[in-house]
Design brief:
- The chain has 16 helices and 15 strands.
- By secondary structure, the chain is an alpha+beta fold.
- It has two domains: 14-355, no CATH class; 358-466, Immunoglobulin-like.
- The strands form four sheets. Strands 6, 7, 8, 10, 11 and 13 form a six-stranded antiparallel beta sheet that branches. A four-stranded antiparallel beta sheet has the order 12-9-14-15, with no helix packed on it.
- A hairpin with a 4-residue loop joins β1 and β2.
- α2 runs antiparallel to α16 (332-354) and α4 packs antiparallel against α6.
- The radius of gyration is 32 Å and the shape is elongated.
- It starts with 24 loop residues before the first helix and ends in a 5-residue tail after the last strand.
Length: 471
């Protein structure tokens, strides 16, 4: 290859996107959703929920240290990870169901990336101006005005990111206590490290990555088409009505002309930087801002709205009718999702409300596996853990069945006590148990440990083994 050959560019440089301000139904809806979701996110850690004297009173709390998850009246233990799995499966199926009905409405309105990007763009617009001013400022030479505006913008982004990160950490510890530690300048380096990392990631994702997160990082954009069919609501451009597109002057006839006047308003307001007139694209997050922009233009040229609209593929091809609108909801795909959603929902709620507030695990000693006492009795040792999921201190009676003449000894802090065990509220009690029985060495016996709540009579059984002979 000669030295004067031209360089071949395999990748196109990422272009900056400067969404233009727009007003209308969907933009107002996005403002409302953004305000509500941000308020929920920032304020939820401060909501109190009275669970009793011995447990945290924060309504939503992920207590990593003690291995608990609290959500208002629900409480999850590590042993109940199957319930968490069910909740995640339920959320995934609900997302698939909504997507099959309304497309990517989650991405356009409720996704964390969308909400915080909207907030960052709003701050950027206030400081730097609308689309053309921001573009001119960014692409222009470095001046004191540019430095000043960019500095204010990035400072506010960092402040928002810091509050976002700090609020996230509040979900893992008592919120008022952590806030008080900041006021007293007595915050642990671990907490500061987490907040610093989350601040940087929020600043990076919402300030710089933006649409690239939705296009390249989020897997949802890649497989969303598998949940679409011709009756899924999508945002689209009415080709039959809009083509052939072209400029139009006031007073001119619309004969042999499409209603699209090539104003590019739909592309200018798109936060993903796409042109919806090119058809449904993976990058589209179904926010509806292009609809607001196009409707505004249609009003100005005295044409009916809906050139760009929410509709189904069948609606764009054959026109909207009562049957097509009914098919949006009632069709086989949505019926399958709804049936699966109902089944999983029933299972999850049954697991939540039918779970026992008392559990026990028993671990047989490995060495020695048994001891023959001087009187001839065989003794086995066990580690017994009792999970008291109630919010009160409880006393339990331990019993054993399956071995004739078996007796229980409880070794607590070096003392041999009766088989009445005390477990504090919302905690795990661990005890060293000895079971001895007057039996001759023989094959292992099945043995059943029973724990009974002395207050309400709740009982729990655990099957183990009693060994009296070496293999």
């Amino acid at each position: 290859m000669s030295d004067d050959s031209e360089d071949i560019q395999l990748f196109k440089k990422q272009e900056n996107i400067y969404p233009k301000r727009v007003s209308g139904l969907f933009r107002n809806l996005k403002w409302i959703v953004m305000g509500v979701t941000l308020a929920i996110y920032y304020l939820t850690p401060f909501v109190r929920w009275d669970r009793g004297e011995h447990v945290p009173n924060q309504a939503v709390l992920l207590d990593i240290v003690n291995g608990r998850a609290y959500w208002f009246w629900f409480e999850l233990w590590p042993q109940e990870v199957y319930i968490l799995t069910g909740i995640l499966v339920l959320a995934a199926i609900a997302l698939f169901f909504v997507t099959s009905l309304f497309g990517r409405v989650w991405c356009g309105y409720l996704c964390f990336q969308t909400v915080w990007t909207d907030l960052f763009v709003w701050v950027e617009r206030i400081i730097q101006g609308d689309r053309n001013k921001r573009k001119k400022l960014r692409e222009g030479p470095w001046t004191w005005k540019k430095i000043y505006k960019l500095a204010i913008t990035h400072f506010l982004w960092i402040v928002i990111s810091w509050f976002t990160a700090g609020s996230f950490v509040l979900y893992f510890t008592d919120a008022p206590t952590l806030v008080r530690s900041f006021i007293d300048l007595n915050v642990s380096t671990t907490v500061l490290g987490f907040i610093g990392g989350l601040t940087f990631s929020t600043y990076l994702m919402a300030g710089f990555a933006r649409e690239q997160v939705c296009t390249f990082m989020c897997p949802y954009a890649r497989f969303q088409s598998a949940m679409f069919d011709k009756d899924t609501l999508i945002i689209g451009y009415d080709v039959k009505r809009g083509e052939p597109r072209g400029k139009h002057k006031k007073g001119e006839s619309w004969d042999d002309k499409g209603h699209c006047i090539s104003c590019t308003a739909c592309a200018q307001v798109c936060p993903m930087g796409i042109d919806i007139r090119d058809g449904l694209q993976m990058d589209c997050i179904a926010c509806g801002l292009c609809i607001d922009a196009c409707d505004d233009i249609m009003d100005k040229v005295d044409l009916p709205r809906g050139l760009i609209r929410y509709d189904t593929e069948n609606g764009f091809e054959h026109g909207a009718n009562a049957e097509s609108k009914t098919n949006v909801i009632f069709r086989p795909r949505t019926a399958y999702y709804l049936a699966i959603l109902s089944v999983v929902c029933i299972i999850v709620f049954y697991a939540l409300f039918a779970r026992s507030m008392l559990e026990m695990t028993v671990l047989h000693d490995r060495n020695p596996i048994f001891v023959q006492l001087s009187g001839g009795d065989i003794r086995n040792g066990y580690e017994v853990k009792i999970l008291n999921k109630t919010h009160d201190h409880r006393e339990y009676t331990l019993g054993v069945d399956g071995v004739d003449g078996a007796e229980i000894s409880v070794n607590t802090a070096g003392n041999i006590n009766e088989n009445t065990l005390v477990v504090h509220a919302n905690s795990v009690g661990q005890y060293r148990i000895f079971v001895h029985a007057p039996i001759k060495p023989s094959q292992p016996h099945d043995i059943i440990f029973t724990i009974t709540d002395n207050e309400d009579g709740t009982a729990y059984e655990y099957k183990s083994v009693f060994i009296s002979k070496r293999p």
